[in-house]
Specification:
Bound molecules: flavin-adenine dinucleotide
Oligomer: single chain
Largest sheet: 9 strands, mixed
Number of strands: 20
Strand content: 25-35%
Shape: globular
Order of helices and strands: EHEEHEHHEEHEHEEHEEEEHEEEEHEEEH
Distance between the termini: 35 Å
């Protein structure tokens, strides 16, 4: 039987940042992933370090837009009818998370994690020599009517309470932030502290390579079948039959994490919000900064490697094949929003957001073993919160007191 110090399951951006952070604390880390380093959901996302995005989804526009969205089979939110019965418990929790008491608690917890997220990303980018991959152009959220703008105001007031900067814009100021927009957009909100990265896949690989070069991080391309507590540490059973003993075990397996946690008595209501996009060639349109079309549920991001158009939520589970008509529907809308957009040569993609009903991730220890740590469920914000999660995982594994209060993120909160 092989023995390692710390085993991490999952080489998505959360597992990568946890590995980098633990290596800094002089721990020897082995990362197990069935595909590769930053090859799944973390590879194709919209590249936002969305630090001001603190509103729980259950409230944020979603409830208001729900009937209209569900009526459109290729719209921003869809639930395949055959999957609906399985979703009912999750949807019930999601609905309850929108109540004002839960909403305020989530908002405060998310804001504390975001403050750490920004500080930790800047530190990780500097330490790994990847600061040049940071784009600090802010983001522009766009509205098609005064009514839509007014409906967004309570959300902006909530962000204001937590000190996030923004500015409502219109006319020439809006046109200067993004030339060439369709006149259907009458107002916008500019968020200067919103950031992006040049390409999420390249960033993830670069952060991992940096950690590996320091000599304390190894990668094994292998599927983990099951985990268990063993002798004060953890045991991994691999798909090829081998077993690995570790002193500490971190589960950062994204949307698949609950399958590993459930046999340990940790029944965590993780679902996947599947998301779609198309990445066009770089010269498809001169987009100055990330554009957010909230009422349509998608964004446009200028990357070093292309122009990425997408988002949407399909609550359809882990096993159904992708339905790329969703990518095409968002591309078609963008053609109307950015007249002159060149739509040829695009690459379609689907990813599995790991989502908990209260929009907060799980960061904490297993019910039955202090040496098994969970770090998953970041939903729409896994890239944004990965460096902070890596730091918190390190605090838990090394027995330091966590950088922020972890009770709102407890795996036992459900
Ligand atoms: C369309 C879209 C746009 C998004 N845009 C943004 C954005 O702009 N900003 C942002 O912050 N977030 C965004 N997100 C969310 C973000 O991409 C995710 O939250 C994040 O990638 C999750 O990272 P992760 O490391 O938890 O999971 P993943 O990236 O899914 O990594 C988990 C890894 O675990 C491995 N794994 C699973 N089970 C096993 C097993 N049994 N054995 C071995 N390996 C296993 C998988 O192979 C995978 O590589 C977006 C998501 C989508 C879909």
């Amino acid at each position: 039987m092989t023995e390692v110090d710390v085993a991490i399951i999952g080489a998505g951006i959360v597992g990568i940042c946890a590995a980098a952070s633990l290596a800094e604390a002089d721990r020897d880390v082995t990362v197990f992933d069935r595909t590769g380093i930053c090859e799944e959901t973390s590879s194709g996302n919209a590249a936002a370090l969305a630090f001001p995005d603190v509103l729980p989804l259950a409230q944020k526009g979603m409830m208001r837009n729900l009937p209209r969205w569900l009526a459109d089979p290729l719209g921003p939110l869809s639930i395949p009818p055959s999957y609906f019965p399985r979703l009912i418990p999750w949807l019930w929790r999601f609905w309850r998370a929108g109540s004002s008491r839960h909403y305020e608690k989530s908002l405060a917890a998310q804001s504390s994690l975001m403050a750490l997220a920004e500080a930790e990303w800047i530190r990780v980018l500097d330490a790994s020599g990847t600061r040049s991959m940071l784009r600090e152009n802010g983001a522009l959220e766009l509205y098609e009517s005064d009514a839509e703008f007014k409906a967004s105001l309570p959300g902006w007031q909530a962000r204001d309470r937590f000190g996030f900067e923004f500015r409502h814009v219109a006319g020439d100021e809006m046109a200067a932030l993004q030339p060439g927009l369709s006149p259907r957009f009458v107002k916008g909100t500019f968020m200067p502290s919103w950031k992006n990265v040049a390409d999420p896949k390249l960033l993830g690989k670069a952060v991992f390579e940096h950690a590996r070069r320091r000599g304390r991080v190894a990668f094994e391309q292998r599927r983990v079948e099951a985990i268990a507590p063993r002798g004060g540490g953890g045991l991994l059973r691999l798909a090829d039959g081998e077993a690995v003993l570790c002193r500490a075990l971190v589960v950062a397996a994204g949307a698949w994490s609950h399958r590993l946690a459930a046999p340990l008595g940790d029944n965590i209501p993780l679902e996947t919000e599947r998301g779609y996009n198309t990445t066009l060639p770089v010269d498809a349109f001169d987009v100055k900064r990330q554009l957010i079309f909230s009422s349509h549920g998608f964004v446009v991001t200028p990357l070093e490697t292309g122009l990425r158009i997408g988002g949407a939520v399909e609550l359809g589970g882990l096993d159904r094949p992708p339905d790329y008509r969703r990518s095409k529907a968002m591309l078609e809308k963008t053609r109307q929003f950015l007249p002159g957009l060149k739509t040829d040569g695009g690459r379609e993609w689907m990813g599995y957001r790991p989502s908990l009903p209260d929009s907060l991730p799980v960061i904490g220890r297993s019910r039955n073993s202090a040496s098994i740590v969970y770090a998953f469920g970041h939903g729409h914000l896994g890239l944004t919160q990965a460096a902070a999660t890596g730091r918190l995982v390190r605090d838990l594994v090394t027995g330091q007191s966590p950088a922020i209060d972890l009770s709102p993120f407890s795996p036992q909160r459900f």
